[in-house]
Amino acid sequence: MRHLTDVPARRGLIVFLNGTSSSGKSSIAAELLRLLDEPYFHMPADAFHAMRSHAPVPPDELDTVLHRTWQGYHRAVAGMAAAGNNVVMDHVLSAEWRLRDCLALFEPRDVVLVGVHCPLAELERRERERGDRPPGLAARQLRQVHAHGVYDVECDTGVLDPAACARRIGAFLSARPAPTAFQRLRAGT
């Protein structure tokens, strides 16, 4: 039996899928898990919100609870990667502080930032079909989500299906040029 001290140290890779609600991030993540040769953990932000108890949150405390949930999510992803685990995270950078927090926590050379785009009409159609999101949520997120403007790789789920997006990301992972989008964002360029 191998002892924990025998496990070689390494940092895990974070494949950071950023896009609005209903843009297809979770579907791409599922395809990536099937496609990639190494073990990866899919850590969606929605799963962290779903872990919260159903105890009522007073309206004046909701923003604080949500903020803490996002902060905890970022730290959980950072911890998994620091322990050497590869992670596919799907996130909505709909508030500027979320990107700043991730830039401070994640090792920039170990992050592949993926822009997941989708036309507004298609986002609205998907929201109606899902029925589990407030109408107009994606439209409200659209302007801020991609405001930072820098990605390592991008895909449009209005044009490509999740499997094609995953293949595009997988092909990028084999090359991973530097500097990464996270390195450029952290440097302020």
Automatic annotation (TrEMBL):
It holds the Pfam family CPT. It comes from the Bacteria. InterPro entries: CPT (IPR012853), P-loop_NTPase (IPR027417). This is Chloramphenicol phosphotransferase CPT family protein. It comes from Streptomyces cinereospinus.
